[in-house]
Automatic annotation (TrEMBL):
Keyword Cytoplasm: yes
Keyword terms, alphabetized: Acyltransferase, Cytoplasm, Nucleus, Transferase
Protein name: N-alpha-acetyltransferase 40
Cellular component terms (Gene Ontology): cytoplasm; nucleus
EC number from the UniProt entry: 2.3.1.257
Keyword Acyltransferase recorded: yes
Residue span(s) of domain N-acetyltransferase: 90-259
Amino acid sequence: MESKGLSRNNRENKAKPKRKEIIEKRKAMDALIKVASAEKDYLSAFPAFRHYQISGLSAFLESGRGDKLSSPVKQFIQNLLKANMEGPYGSEWPAEEKVKRREMVAPEAHYVFVRNTSNASSGEFLTTSECEKTSASCVEERGPIVGFVHFRFVIEEELPVLYVYELQLEPHVQGKGLGKFLMQLIELIACKNHMGAVVLTVQKANSAAMNFYLCKMRYVTSTISPSRVDPLIGIEKSYEILCKTFSNEAKAILEEPLELVHSV
Ligand SMILES: CC(C)(COP(=O)(O)OP(=O)(O)OC[C@H]1O[C@@H](n2cnc3c(N)ncnc32)[C@H](O)[C@@H]1OP(=O)(O)O)[C@@H](O)C(=O)NCCC(=O)NCCS
């Protein structure tokens, strides 16, 4: 017999929390989400993450919110999503694109934008007119936006988590460490705001992103991912839910380590 069942039974055998305790816990989680979501600039606590510089790329990071996006920024996000995600989503893309357009502008959508402040070849700062010549995505004077993370604070499986809705970089700035840098920032933001985990969804067809999260960022397939809820359902679904946990409670809920499970 499988011990996964056993570990679930153990959990079920524990004394059930009283209704009052459940309500108190829920209130505490709602308060955490409210406080976390009220922050205007998530970078203010991590000034070292305002700039990213490697040979050939100088970038500046800034915060944003879904209901405060300018029209050119919305257009940029839509264009980049289409360019990067139409392939992995395949026939699901037209429906998914509509969902993403709605999600993009929600007040609970928090952003970190990456602006390219350098001429990639020389490392010098670009003027506005140079930006316009080099990138159609140059929407403001501070340099063109070349990528972004969209994240939210939500309750998942009775646990407050930071959910990464999107992590998108223009192709010419991919593979330069920016994705890792942004995910490290996201994990710091999650910890600072007392979230139990960072959670995200990846299309299985997006093998580069799967590899990035699983191999490089050390995320694991969550117990709430279709393939772990039920392998048969998992085969039908085109995505996996990955997570990185920061507390034992989160680990028990979102990871439920299979190595502790043994046969009897
Ligand atoms: C996936 C993505 C966010 C990764 O960001 P990135 O800046 O390109 O990745 P990084 O340069 O930070 O790479 C970090 C590590 O992952 C590795 N890596 C990145 N992309 C990889 C790939 N396609 N295949 C294998 N390894 C990869 C790098 O080698 C690096 O490893 P190292 O630290 O040992 O050198 C970025 O490529 C992207 O925007 N892709 C298109 C959109 C997308 O798929 N988003 C994810 C949707 S869920």
